[in-house]
């Protein structure tokens, strides 16, 4: 292997070098993978063939000739979906298609933030979001959660305290509908309280709805953007509703925001075939697809809950999610999941330690996030049993598994 | 249209807001569009159908389960192509697939640069590259060009001068093979001189080969990376050899570099269907595709040269490119192309003003870049005639068109 001679030329800031990829763990409860059995293989194959036959020559043009906001039929589909399912009033001009919702997040962050700015995020939230904010030099303030999302009394205290210190937070980043990692859905009344705080404290809201399409209930309360479009930036994704390897997400906001986002989108466009395929397939079969996907995910969640009940018993407190692909759980307070995460990975069991999904890592030492979408049902059962075995070896918890007292 | 209420929360640094997209110009001589007639529509449609049928369930996994470096069969194809055509010794482990070569550029820049760092670039170069370097706060030093690329005597003077001032340039960014915008190919002897300077002055080289696959001649001199892999980072793209709307490019470098690049690639993967389609189609038909594409582009170049000869006569000095999709030309020194660029655009004629493709904008005031790949032959002829008419109206040049003296 060739060595690079000028290592002293590397930037000394920025993230750590990555480790080489060594394959997927046998029991893979991490990342936002989806259910392979629910990928509509035949339909996507036929869609891809059809859209390339119809629009192939346009691939010679950046953005398929549709401009930097992206492929217009997909923007039209996004707008229609948001009108019908999220009480959002918008059209294709209000949508920018992105390379996944991670790029959407980068673009929105960059539109607002300079180093030293303050942002408020949920105390437990998507680890990637915290990492991105930290790399931008933001001061992160944690808003406490309960089973209905952000606690508004606590948020008001934070906002009043910041105002008292002359600090204007640039935005609140929130996942109100199927929160990551807790799986909660913020009720309507609390959404209205949040928007009232936004008004009283001049607080822009950055709403991430990447899991909304796979909420178990058929109707969630309206999106925050639907309730107050002049105070909210809304992002979403097709990673969870269709497939994460397709890198397409979207931003919906007023032109004041989108024009700044587009000034920062210097990638010459997001993937064209994937935009066309999603527009064609979801344009015809969005409802049908979700009607199959949601119960399939729900079944896997039930399998995981059963397995956790059997293997961990009362040692694990489960936060049963209202949708999505992951389960957040808490072990007894003296357990620090970091003490066995690497050992578990070495033995083929991958989970997200709570501290990686928290503003204050130590506050989530006893928590973990388990994604249930990828493994099949038997693998979920075996993996949870392995997890319990490894956890017991390192922490003495769970004391009982399947009603049998463990002895170390 | 909803207005965003918190405009005072926007970052005050960063690029200007974008203007709304108003459609494509009638005579479109800008961007790196390709030839719509040369998109292999049937083949891509069949490839897409096939790869989705074969690998569809893997779309449920980030990176199709192949890890952050990207879809392995495409990395294998890239390595094979580089071994066979660029004298590069590498394999799939040496390749990171990216979302176009623009993301590759962002990742490499970020791996090396901190604000205030110095980089050397060709005096005329890709405008997007200069913009990216400026946004990162780099000091840009221009290396003079002649018909064979960077002048080595001038580069040595620059390096000696920087060393004398205690400045270590982080890298030289170069497009040695079908240079953008001049269309030159650096001869072998000069490549060796460049690598000798790299050795003597500890100069890392950032080699951009996005146009190499469409050089007219069948064999270009070896890639710089092929000659000195421990001192070069190599990037390339499928935008020019296949289609720019497919967002797939690549970085080839030692693991020291790639591990840092991957630490910065926080997008959860580049587009999966596009990676699979390119691997399948180019894996079987790369040579055949280029054997059709190159003469088609060459014919359009000839049409453009004929039209420029007819419309501009001796007023335009043409730098006939050795490949690629654009032509660089110079009008008489007193003509500043910026004086009529907007008026031309308003009349449906879009070109790249030289100043946007230069480190020192004023040094390229009389230059322009014309892309010939997108318009059909009649549109090229009409557009060049329109360009000459508009140019004459604003500058009195060309005095003669089609051997007829112009009167204003």
TrEMBL record, chains A, B:
The Aminotransferase class I/classII large domain, residue ranges: 62-385
Annotated organism of origin: Microbaculum marinum
An MF annotation (GO) of this entry: pyridoxal phosphate binding
Keywords of this entry: Aminotransferase, Pyridoxal phosphate, Transferase
Alphabetized SUPFAM superfamilies for the sequence: PLP-dependent transferases
Protein name: PLP-dependent aminotransferase family protein
InterPro entries, per database record: Aminotransferase_I/II_large (IPR004839), Class-I_PLP-dep_aminotransf (IPR050859), PyrdxlP-dep_Trfase (IPR015424), PyrdxlP-dep_Trfase_major (IPR015421), PyrdxlP-dep_Trfase_small (IPR015422)
Pfam families named among the record's database cross-references: Aminotran_1_2
Family: Belongs to the class-I pyridoxal-phosphate-dependent aminotransferase family.
Source organism superkingdom: Bacteria
Ribonucleoprotein is among the record's keywords: no
Cofactor: pyridoxal 5'-phosphate
GO annotation terms (biological process): alpha-amino acid metabolic process
Subunit structure: Homodimer.
């Amino acid at each position: 292997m060739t060595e690079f001679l000028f290592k002293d030329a590397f930037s000394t800031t920025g993230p750590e070098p990555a480790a080489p990829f060594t394959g997927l763990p046998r029991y893979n409860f991490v990342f936002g993978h989806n259910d392979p059995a629910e990928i509509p293989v035949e339909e996507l194959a036929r869609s891809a063939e059809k859209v390339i036959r119809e629009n192939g020559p346009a691939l010679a043009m950046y953005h398929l000739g549709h401009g930097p906001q992206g492929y217009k039929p997909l923007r039209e589909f996004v707008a229609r979906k948001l009108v019908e399912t999220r009480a959002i009033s918008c059209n294709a001009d209000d949508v920018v298609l992105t390379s996944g919702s991670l790029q959407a997040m980068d673009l929105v962050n960059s539109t607002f933030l300079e180093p030293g700015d303050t942002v408020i995020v949920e105390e437990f939230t998507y680890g990637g979001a915290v990492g991105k904010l930290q790399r931008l030099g933001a001061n992160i303030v944690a808003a406490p959660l309960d089973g209905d999302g952000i606690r508004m009394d606590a948020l008001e205290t934070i906002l009043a305290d910041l105002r008292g210190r002359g600090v204007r937070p640039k935005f609140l980043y929130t996942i109100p509908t199927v929160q990551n990692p807790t799986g909660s859905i913020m009720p309507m009344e609390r959404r209205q309280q949040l928007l009232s705080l936004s008004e009283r404290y001049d607080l822009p809201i950055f709403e991430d709805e990447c899991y909304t399409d796979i909420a178990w209930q058929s109707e969630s309360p309206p999106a925050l953007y639907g309730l107050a479009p002049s105070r909210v930036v809304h992002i979403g994704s097709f990673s969870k509703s269709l497939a994460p390897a397709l890198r397409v997400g979207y931003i919906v906001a007023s032109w004041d925001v989108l024009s700044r986002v587009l000034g920062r989108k210097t990638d010459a466009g997001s993937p064209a075939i994937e935009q066309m395929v999603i527009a064609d397939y979801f344009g015809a079969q969005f409802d049908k697809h979700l009607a199959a996907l949601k119960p399939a995910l729900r079944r896997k969640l039930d399998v995981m809950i059963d397995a956790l009940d059997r293997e961990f018993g009362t040692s694990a407190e489960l936060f049963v999610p209202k949708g999505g692909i992951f389960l957040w759980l808490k072990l007894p307070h003296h357990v620090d999941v970091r003490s066995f995460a690497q050992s578990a990975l070495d033995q083929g069991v991958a989970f997200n330690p709570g501290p990686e999904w928290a503003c204050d890592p130590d506050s989530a030492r006893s928590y973990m996030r388990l994604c249930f979408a990828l493994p099949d049902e038997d693998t979920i059962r075996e993996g949870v049993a392995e997890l319990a075995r490894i956890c017991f070896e390192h922490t003495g918890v769970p004391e009982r598994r399947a009603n049998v007292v463990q002895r170390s």
